[in-house]
Amino acid sequence: MRSVLDMYDYQHGIAELYGTLQDDLSREVFWARLQADAEKEATINAESQFTGMLKLIDLRKAAPEKEALDQWRDRCKQLAQENKRVILYGTAFTGRFLARHLLSTGVDFYGFCGRSAEKFPHGLMGKPVVTPQWLIESGRDCYVIITATKNNGSYQEIESFLRQSDFPEAQILSSFWEDCREAALEWVRNFQYFEFPELYEPGTAFIDGGCLDGDSSIRFSKMAGKYSKIFAFEPDTISKKLCEANMSAAGLHDFQVIEAGLSNRIGTAEFFATHSESSFVLSEHSPEKPLPFSGEYTSIRTVILDDIVGNETVGFIKMDIEGAEYGALHGAERTIRRDRPLLAICVYHRPGDLLAIMDYCHRLIPEYRFWLRHYYMNSTETVLYASIKSLTR
Question: Which of 13, 119, 256, 280 is deepest in the core (most CB within 10 A)?
Fold first, then answer.
């Protein structure tokens, strides 16, 4: 338990970090990120538990999924004009995300459905929350939009329940989230990590922590034009081979793909391999985050960045390594102190990462200036940028 004095020091520390943020957007993202992380950890009123996440979404520079959302809005509007009742199946974030868009654009719907209906005795967003049993017994005239996502099996579970209950097939609508997801991810792939190209020192090395398929390294090479070397890290064997193939096909030069995870120690770690962006080191996995729908347990090698780069001058470090960022930065201490590179570090995988990573980097290099940007339509993809340079734009 912290002493009262410790708490005052903690408050001072937050204020000091806040003062290093370089623009209004970064400051807004800072508070929204802290709120979203706190809501993950806290037991609070079920209706307000996604407030921080929704703020993060609103702070993006673009809403690439808007066209898909508008198509769903028009579909719901048409059903409403035909006096059809629309039910959003799911009371979690994705259901509220669609509901907010519908209501904000003047389109009404009947209500929500969810197994946790008892948590909403007064409804949700001004709408009733019915049980799955009510839907089967009394709502067979309803049109159901399954708002759960497909990547963790929830969508399939709901769809199977409705079909096994002989709910009218034509009234089960597909998942709106998948339509939005592809557009949003394409925008992320085009902009994340490389928001500030002018902060990179040309002719220096790039660290691609979590290279997956090589896309980040390829995008870096186009942004930088001139660089000395690319060190790419990918512990998943299948993804590592894909990364090498893609980088070679793109004509990259002087690159090395290391089949290992970045850490603060040399050794091994238990790893959950999905051969996608969802792979992670088990010890760094945030406990409230569900395991991906499919994958396999394996063991990977862990390395220290300082040992790998040696005397190579590093100008840019990007890390998106599923919660292992804090430890990996400790393994890069010598490099960061020596070269003071541009950093693009993901701070959304574990609640507390934002403050811990900002504090560590600020203590290493007090001259670092910080920027925060959020890129996706949920609480993922928040990136902390750090540089000793200032922006002229």
Answer: 280
